[in-house]
Amino acid sequence: MSKSAARLRMRILANGVSFFAAGAVAPALAQTPADLPPVLVASPGPISLTPLNVDAVLQSDATAAQGYRPEFLSGVGPLGAKPIIDTPYSIDVISRELLENTQAQSTDDVFKLDPFTQNVFPVNRGNPFSVNIRGFATSETTLDNMRLWNTSVIDIEGMERVEVVRGLSGFLYGAADPGGLINFVVKRPTAAPFAQLTVGDYGIGPFTGGAGYVHGDFGGPIDKEGRFGYRINIVGQSGDTAVDQQRLQRSYFSAALDWHVAPEALAQVNVFHSYYRVDAPDPFWFYGGTAIQGQAPSAQRSWSQPWAYYRNEQNGAEAKLTWKPNDILTLRGGFLYIHSSQPEISVNNLVFSNDGTYSQSLNNNAAGDLTTLSGYGFIDADFETGPLKHKVTGGYFTQRYQSVLPEDAASFASTTGNFNFGRPYYAAMPSFDAIGTRPSSLFFTRSNQNAVLGDQIDYGPLSVIAGVTHAQIQTSDYTYLPPIGVSRTLESQYDEGRFTPSASVLFKVTPWLSTYATYIEGLEAGDTAPVGALNAGETFPPSLDRQYEVGAKANVGATLLTLAFFDIDKAYAFLDSDNVFKSAGREEHKGVEFGASGKVLPEWTVFGGVTFLDPRVTNDPTLDGLQPINVSSRMAKVYSEYALPFVPGLTLTGGVYYYGKYAATVDNTQYLPGYATGDLGFRYETKLNGIPLTARFNVSNVTNHSYWMSNRFVGAPREISFSLATRF
C-alpha cells in the first residue's frame, strides 16, 4: 500500500470515529447505555450442564459481565464437558467476548493473553506456530477436541473460545507434547436470531496504515420449532501490518448447522474455507560460530525481503453426533477433514560474527497437499453402585496426517548485499531452480490411534478419576528431494504403542473450593531434526513422559482462583553446537502457577497469572543442570478492565506481560534478557438512534520495545488497532 493511500484511508476512518464520538458521547453521558444483547440469555439459577446443551451454556459463559470468569469446559478429552471446579487438571479459558474485546486477530494474540503461555514462534513466519506451556514447546492443537496438524491456520473469528490444557494430556488426548494442548471451540448456532458486524483497522504502525478489516457473524434458528439452527462467519482483511514492508491478506468463511433430530439427539456440521497470505514474513535468525546474540534489531522494520511470502489455503469440514437414548447411556462421535496447501519463500538471517553484519539464505517451497483426518467415538454410562456414582467412558480417537509434495518440492538460494543491523537491505529476488515440475508423491504420514477406558467415581465431596489409554504412533518418512529420475523412497518409519495410566483424586471442600492430585503418563512422538540440521528430517522414536500435579481451585466472590504445583519430565532433544540434532538425557520442569480471573470489584476485571519454573536437563553428564533454551523461569501476565462509573459505557483496558531471561544456547553460555510489554486501550458501548454500538481501541507494546521473543525471532512492534461493532 502506498503511503498516500494509507493516509487517505486513515483520514476516512478517523473522520468516521470522530463522527461516532460526536453523536454518541453526549447522549451516553445523560443515560446508562444498555449492554449489547447477549448471544444467549442465561436462565436464572444454577446451570445444569448436559451433553445436549453444552454449546448453549458456553455462549453465556465467561462473558465480560462475568469478568471473563469461566465456569465450564467444552470438553476434557473423552470425559466430555465439565465444570472447571470439578476438573483435576489445569485448563485456561479465553472466551469469545474476551477475544473480541482485546481485538485478537491470530494465535499470537491468544498466546500473549493466556496467563501461562509463552509464544516463541510468530504466526507471520508461517507454519508451524509453537508456544511454551510449562516451559515445553508445543504445537498440539484440536478443533472441537479433534486433533489438528500443527500447520493449520486458526481464524480466531470463527471460535467461541480457546481452552488451553496445561501439562500432560495422554489420558485425555493420546500421544502429545508434555507441555499441553490448545483446543479451539467452533461457534455454534444461537437460540435467538443474532447478527453482528465489525469493521476496523488493525496493526497500524509507525510506517504503515494498518490492515482494513470486516467481520460478519450471523446466527439463529431456521424453523419455528427451533430444530434447525445456523451460524455463519465471514471475514476479510487486507493491508499492512505494523512491520514496515509487511503485508497481510486473509479471508475466512464458515457455516455451521445444528439439527435437533430428536429431544435426545443432536447432529452438527461445520464447513469452512480459509485463505492467509503474508508478504515479507518474519525471518528466522540463526547465530553460529563466535557470534553473540545481542540487542534485538528494530521490531518495526522488516528484516525479511518484500518479495518473500507465506500462503496457507485450507478447506475443511467437521460433523458431530450426540445421542442420549436413556438416562444411563450417552453416545458421542465426531469426524474432521482438512485439506491445506502452503507455498512459501522463507528468509533465514545467518549471523556468524560480531561485526554487525549477517547473510541471508532463502527457501522456495512448493505448495503440496496436506490432509488431516481426525475423529472420535465415545460411549458414556452413568449409574450407581450403592453409595457410589459412576461415569464410565470408553472409546477410540484417531488422527492421521499425510503430506504429498512434488519431487522437486524446494529450491534454495542466497541474496547478496550490504546486510547489517543498522538498516534492512532489500535485495533483488535471486533466480531459483524450478519447483513443482516433477510428479507428486507421498512425503510423510503421521498416525495416532488411541483407545481409552476411564471411570469417574463420586462419593459425596470425593471424586476419583482413573483410566488408561493405549496410544499407538505410526510414522513414515520419505526422501525429501530425490535426484532427477529417481522416485521417493522410504527413509524411516516406526510403529510403536504403549498403555499409559492416569489417576486423579478431587475433594470438594466446599461447593466453591476444590483440591486435587493427579498422576498422568503420556506417550510422545519422537522429535524430528529441523531443516538446517545436518541430520534434517531424522525422526527419533517415541518416548514416555510423566507428570505429578497437585492444586486447588476456588470461586471467591466473582473471581476464579487457581493454584497448581507440578513436576514433568520427558526425553531431551536439542540442536548441538556441531549442528546435529540429538536426543540425550531427560528434561525436567518443576513449577508453581497461580491464576485469577473475574471481577475483583463490580467495575474492575482481572485476568492473569504468575508462573515460577525450575527447568533443568538431567541424566546426561555433559548437560546436567543446564537450562533448556527459550524457557523463561519467571512469567507474569495480567489483563485488566475498569468501567468508569462517571462515564457510563466507557471501560479502560490494559495489560502487562513479563517474561524472565532465558538460555539462548544449549550450553547456556548465552542468555537473552527478559522483557515486558504493555497494552493500553478502551471500549465504549452506547446506542446511536437505537442501534447498539461498541467502539474498541488498543495500543499494544506501547513503548515500541524491540526484544527477542525467542532465540530465533524478534517480537512484535507497537501496533494500533480500532474497530466499531454493532448488533442488529
Automatic annotation (TrEMBL):
Source species, domain of life: Bacteria
InterPro entries, sorted: Beta-barrel_TonB, Beta-barrel_TonB_sf, Plug_dom, Plug_dom_sf, TonB-dep_rcpt-like, TonB_rcpt_CS, TonB_sidphr_rcpt
Signal peptide start-end: 1-30
Subcellular location(s) per record: Cell outer membrane
Keyword Ion transport tagged: yes
UniProt domain TonB-dependent receptor plug: residue ranges: 84-180
Protein name as it appears in the record: TonB-dependent siderophore receptor
